[in-house]
Amino acid sequence: MFNKAICRGITPILVLTSLVLNAQGAQTLVGGESRAAKLWLKPWGPGQNVQHQHVQRARVFKVPQKDLRDEALSLLEVQSAVPLTSLQAAHFLGGTAPSGNEVVNRSIADAGAESRIPGNPSVDASVTYASTLIGRLNPYLVRAVAANPGNFVFVVGFCGNDLCVFGGSLGEYNFAREPLVVYLERQPVDVWIDARSAL
Length: 199
Known about the structure:
This protein is of the alpha+beta class. It has one domain (4-98, 138-198). The chain is 35% helix and 25% strand. It has six helices and ten strands; from the N terminus they run ααββαβαααβββββββ. The protein has helices at 4-25, 35-40, 66-75, 86-92, 100-114, 123-131; strands spanning 52-55, 60-62, 81-83, 138-142, 145-146, 152-159, 162-170, 176-177, 180-184, 191-198. The strands form three sheets. The chain has a four-stranded mixed beta sheet, covered by helices on one side. The protein has a four-stranded antiparallel beta sheet with strand order 2-9-4-3, covered by helices on one side. It has a two-stranded antiparallel ribbon with strand order 5-8. Strand 6 and strand 7 form a beta hairpin. Helix 5 packs antiparallel against helix 6. The radius of gyration is 16 Å and the shape is globular. The relative contact order is 0.24.
């Protein structure tokens, strides 16, 4: 079971970020959005469970090359999350991909580095949780949308059995589909996708 302190920590960040970016960028939401990216957007509503089980950044990878991105996009035409073999993950990441346990070790190292930041109470819980993932992570190809592909970051987390993927950007709206390779401990039932940009 994921530590409640982390859930309480990540939920306000996601909610406040979404509210701030929504307020700043709502007037340009329709602006430069592509039809294909718009079809991928599937925001979670206010009545849905927003208690996120955070997926550490060390477990999320962008598909780097255009030809690989095009291939990944074609695999994601029907499904929002597609399980990958180790060889497929390596292919989409340009030739090499970490094992699930290597990703766990990176997550633990990242959390350990954060422990040197004063006033960060959820770090011990993050390390403990990451340690429980040894031998359990597998790569998935996952849909995401960037509001501005030139300047964006993704926040990924489980909402119950569903995966929530939020793309935060800076600058004008120019929506684009972004395939991600994400190491997950279970197959998500559904994937909820949102993207916002702050001008």
